[in-house]
């Protein structure tokens, strides 16, 4: 997912601002007078009269060349403008510090002393600025996506038992260390829906679990499923998207059926004794019981 040089957090925030702007500013008109050339005056033309093309070019030059007073005004900005620029620069610096801290957590690097408190204060400050409306979008599309790719790239080419064992280690690290640290860093955001925990688990499901060859590894005859993988699947099947059951969730349920039997899923009760396509509908059982 990460290909080439990724843009810095400050650049990405500027892109978010541009995308949420109501309309873009018009492009300035640029005239190159070197491309115009007036024909030489004819011999019979009165030398005292000025050629009309030359008069037009002269007027355009006067219109396009700002006076010294106008240049001075453009160089000076009002105190309000300077204050706004300073606020944006400070917000970008805060975003950068949060970005670096979160990526460091995914890279198994600890936070410095008192850094967690500073990050909490930074999050609180950003939520009160114009960037606060971009917070969830930035958290999902940048921080969590980048972090999950870091974890996924370590195991993405593994297969079979090696994949199961490596995925178990990855889940243990994420669930015990990364998830708790993310909740601590973004503690000021708690109480909003979706929560940081929910977003992180959904990104782990979509970016890691559903992108590796886990179904093939679980289907092998002598597969030894680590307890952490079973725990991972059961926890993830309890996390739902805001829009309800979707394709990703159903794909996860098909993985849960391979490690838990019987399993009550979205479409009914699944048993290891049944064929892959067979299931017993809970609604059907209740109707027969009546």
TrEMBL record:
GO terms for biological process: TORC2 signaling. Signal peptide: none annotated. GO terms for cellular component: TORC2 complex. Residues 1-52, 66-91 are annotated as: Disordered. Coiled coil: none annotated. Residues 72-87 have a biased composition (Basic and acidic residues). Belongs to the PROTOR family. This is Proline-rich protein 5. It comes from Oryzias melastigma (Marine medaka).
